[in-house]
Write a structure and sequence with these properties.
This protein is mostly helical. It is built from 1 helix and no strands. It starts with a helix and ends with a helix. The model has no long low-confidence stretch (mean pLDDT 89).
């Protein structure tokens, strides 16, 4: 009887080991797939971010040029207007 119980316990232990091994392999495979997907997704978003930053910098550069051109034009108009008003009031 003790031999029969020992065999049953041994078979049960082997089944548990096999099941645990399969569960571990499944968890490892699933984790690898998730990590690989996350890496690919992150790489795609890095490309998108890089393009957005480049486009944003070009836009900022253009806006800065427009601002300075406008300021220069306003300065020119102000100086010209000051000279005209000075000429009118000094006569």
């Amino acid at each position: 009887m003790a031999t029969k119980n020992k065999k049953t316990v041994t078979k049960t232990i082997e089944k548990v080991k096999n099941t645990a091994s399969k569960a571990n392999a499944f968890a490892l495979k699933s984790t690898e797939e998730v990590v690989s997907g996350a890496i690919q997704f992150t790489a795609q978003w890095q490309d998108v971010s890089k393009k957005a930053i480049k486009g944003g910098l070009k836009l900022a550069d253009t806006q800065q040029d427009i601002l300075f051109n406008t300021l220069e034009a306003a300065k020119g108009h102000a100086v010209k207007g000051f000279k005209r008003s000075k000429a009118l009031f000094t006569k």
